[in-house]
Amino acid sequence: MVFLEMLYKGRNLNSIWFTVNRNNESSIAVYEKKGFRTVREQIADIGNGFVMDDFIMEKEIPVP
């Protein structure tokens, strides 16, 4: 994560975001400790009656 933050700062990007399965509680806890927050929920139909049931998590990166 530190590498990504440095990379984003160097490119003047102001946030990192990704999806994580809403049932992946251990990963969500780690991401929250690293400063990420849940910004919205996403349910995507992937066919045959299956869906991806995710949170979108984001961390703002201060741009110098």
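Above is the first protein from milestone M3; the second protein from the same milestone is given next.
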Amino acid sequence: MARGATDRHAPEWTDPSCPVARTVDLVGDRWSLLVIRDAMDGARSFTDFQQRTGIARNILTDRLRKLTAYGLLAQVDAPSGRRKLYTLTDAGKDLFPVIVTLRQWGEHHAFNPGEP
């Protein structure tokens, strides 16, 4: 779990002694890394994330809550005060090289010849 996050938000660890397994437990579901990717690309509001990913609203709500509870995102008030915005914490920013590496791997191995 991100340092500083509270244990009450910890998932049940698949393999408590393995850092890879713990990381997958935190961000390895279908949507979490895409939310983090979009936060790195400037998404801040619920609407930003929803439009970029197409994720169902209830699932997005769940992922934003979990990523905030795990200390990867922080929730802040928008300047208008009417809604919340999400920003990456230092722990979330530390995932940048992971996202870049996943992208590079995907470019080399996840497309058939002739696909974008």
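Note on the second protein: Residues 96-109 form the longest helix (14 residues).
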